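Below is how a single chain appears once it has passed through the pipeline. First comes the sequence as given, then the structure the pipeline wrote out for it. We keep one example in the README because the format questions we get most often are answered faster by looking than by reading.
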Amino acid sequence: MSQPNTPLQPPIRKYHDSDKVRPMYARHSLLGPTPRHSIPRDGMAPSTAYNLIHDELILDGSSRFNLATFCSTWMEPEAHKLMAETFDKNMIDKDEYPQTAELEMRCVHMLAELWNAPNAAETIGTSTIGSSEACMLGGLALKWRWRRRMRAAGKDPERNGVRPNLVLGTNTQVCWHKFCRYWDVEAREVALEGAEVVTDPERAAAACDENTIGVVSVLGSTFTGHYEDVQALSAALDALQARTGLDIPIHVDGASGGFVAPFLQPELVWDFRLPRVKSINTSGHKYGLVYPGVGWIVWREAADLDEDLIFKVDYLGGTMPTLAINFSRPASQIVAQYYNLIRLGRSGYRAVHEACREVAIELANQIAELGPFEMLSTGLDLPVLAWKLKQPSNWTLYDLSDRLRDRGWQVPAYRMPANRDETVVQRIVVRNGFTHDLAGMLLRDMKRHLDWFASQPGFTPSPAGVGFHH
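Resulting structure:
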């Protein structure tokens, strides 16, 4: 009697320790589904776990082709080695790791000198997890300074129900809006007007009153890479003080420019040479050339940081001061920052950033020659270039951004901030390791996609001609 057709079932095997000698991709752990949202019942061999995760991460874009990020994506092998040797050190434990604490303070004093602090060796500052945390600390110091001043004038804010405000441009990074929301400060935003890409100093000064804790000036806009005019802002606030008596401090958000301007534009006055600048932050993991995870904030003088913001903590056998928001984190990024500072020196940082600027300027010129783009920045401040479309077409910059991903390029398209949000721009951040050769590859891919757009129905010719072949 014939048997009914039944689906073939694979033989049921029981896998035990013998799995460890099976070829990698025949291992039981890789043949069946692995739980994604629950801890598996049993463990697996280290190499199996590594390959399982490694293969998933192949789906991520290449960090070197990510032209959206300001974060460093390359470091020297010696820096890798030092970082691997210090991942296990908790940098907050200064009693157990006093030499790491010493390296941290050396970095602070080096940056204070780089930014022309009056007495760099005595300046107070700290490392942070990034510029966002550094901005939070800078904002808190401004708020505490304002509150102390108001109390001295007999206008205790808590008793009078007065809310402080912070003046900032709409082009500032989102961390400043977080600061205002988290610490109950009014964000007094100065919108861009006309063709502006950075905040107007006069209108920023006009927005201040006696409840203003400070003004944020951005040295390197994330939208276009332009520097704001800190010196003009300081002069506008000087004039305000002469008229009204209001003494408004400046915090410079130098997340990117703090590690660029001293080397590429040393004549630019934006730092502690201006007495009104009370604090500066920067990202070591941007143009400080360290992998993500380190920022810095430095105050002009110790008196600019209220002692109430410094905690004395008994921790693991010793008493130590701490003023960071985060606590435990690895020492590796601090060690890597110190490595870069002594390894490169001023001449090395200048050489790296000059190379980046050279690539940015050349690439900006070549993109402008393609025809449909109007350049908004060309790498003259930060090595950043941004552009918009000259006229509407059957494609948008979002379309171009999407098509460039076919070979891994990540070139973001986004809207400008309030009052200019009708303008869509595309931006490239040129970082250490983005060479002329890579820039040429990107340009060829842009031409290829522009030719494809030109072949589609409804194409609007550019001012440079019908096609994009050069």
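DSSP finds 13 helices and 13 strands in the chain.

See the next section for the split statistics.
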